[in-house]
Amino acid sequence: MARDLAAETLAHLGLRLHPDKTRIVCLRKGNEGFDFLGFHHRMVAHPNNRRYYYLHKWPSERAMASIRAKVKDRTRRSRASWDLDTVIEDLNPVLRGWGAYFRFGNSARKFHTLDSYVHFRLARLASEKIGKSGRSWTRRFDYGWFTSIGVHRLTGTVRYWTANA
Q1: Structure pTM?
Q2: ∠55-61-63 over CA atoms, to 5°?
Q3: Alpha carbon separation from 46 to 39, 49, 87, 93 (Å, rounded)
Q4: What are the residue ranges spanned by the domains of the chain?
């Protein structure tokens, strides 16, 4: 019934539902969610009162895999001969654009995960540049170094909607 109503409404706009991509999900109490436009949507219980559920959205696994692949490509070992500022200039527009799209919602955890991954990749690249191997980079290229080199940070850029907005 819901699928028929959606198909009828979309037909007036000249659109149609794709049978392989369209499914009906039950969002009650966070049983399952769905991916739409790069976001994963799911009902999540209120942290203080488990009787209330709210629809939350965050970057889907496919979106996370896509941005990790882009970061990996821009920080590959073959770029160890490049100046680190040049690598960061190439990387920042990608991070800024991805973050601008996904900052609306409940993306803070995913942003922190991605910031950690970018830190790891850049520290590894910097270690390669100076000829160090192993995990010694964890002490040399710490959080202070990461914040000082000018990489666009995603953590802290999430914008939450207010009820009256």
Answers
A1: 0.82
A2: 95
A3: 20, 5, 41, 35
A4: 61-148
